[in-house]
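I have been asked to look over a protein record a colleague put together. What it holds is a sequence and that sequence's fold in token form. Please read both lines and tell me whether the tokens look consistent with the sequence. I do not need a full report, just your reasoning and any doubts. This is what I was given:
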Amino acid sequence: TVNSKNKDLLFRFIFGAEENKGHLLSLYNAINNTNYTETDDIEINTLSDVIYIRVKNDVSFILYSDMSLYEHQSTFNPNMPLRGMIYFSNLYSQFISEHCKNIYGKTLVKIPAPRYTVFYNGYDSYPDKLELKLSDAFETPDPSGQFEWTATMLNINQGHNQEIMAKCQALFQYSDFNAKIKENKQSMSIEDAVDKAVDY
């Protein structure tokens, strides 16, 4: 039986498992135009609902001075900025607790800078890159820009973001695998479509 969340689970395994830090580093380098090489410098801090009830994200990690959050979506969700703000709130709480930071003292507490990317591979048509803003959800528009949280959505369907795909083989292969499932589903059951894609 094919798991209905196979895209999401596979994405999390490829890029979120400790043993796959090489793929995660490759993806980070591809979308940030960096060339880091030390996977040991990655601290995976993905939230699970074991600790935070009903709050879990796909993949998050700290690398040097950045805290990155990678979310996978097979259906477009305009609420990703709001969800990201909630995820980061929990991630920063965890960071402060684990690193014994005192946010009530006179010293400015230094934290990793947030980087939030949503990887989209659904059926609807979207451009390579789309900026989703929290302010779009405000009931009363606030043009000041003082309260903003942005999610950068990257379309990872076949034929999109080819420069990033060329830099990260694991992302290209993930996209290619899902494209094969979509192609196969046109003429066979989902179980057969996935089996044939796995064989491919």
